[in-house]
Amino acid sequence: LIRLGLREPPAATVFRDTSRINLVSRELKSHPFQENMLRLTATIVNQAAQSQPYPELEVILLDALGDEVSRSRFSPSDYLAAGVSDHSRMTPQAYLPLVLDLPDPGSEAVGFELNFQ
Prior knowledge:
By secondary structure, this protein is mainly beta. The longest helix is centred in the middle third of the chain and has 4 residues, at 76-79. It has a three-stranded antiparallel beta sheet, with no helix packed on it. Strands 5-4-8 form a three-stranded antiparallel beta sheet. Strands 3-6 form a two-stranded antiparallel ribbon. It has one helix spanning 76-79, and strands spanning 21-30, 37-46, 52-53, 57-62, 68-74, 89-90, 95-103, 111-116.
């Protein structure tokens, strides 16, 4: 058998640009039903021109000096509605409401960052 230098085609690359995912609303408050928990409600939008995978989310709670108090991570399966596949994609310009529950580190936490990864 003689090989002619043919290669398998490269795997299709998946478009991902988390800088095009924007936070358009957010509110962090005490959880309405569980003690020692916080609830973050937010809305994000994919402002890229094409679909992309749902991001991993990282919530960093901050003190008054901007120092980290706690950190929580959420995968798409943690925040997508039941029945939505982790492998589905965020369509362009579609708004996605989020509800994230996280441990309350106490009164030190006065602000937060939400990062997309």
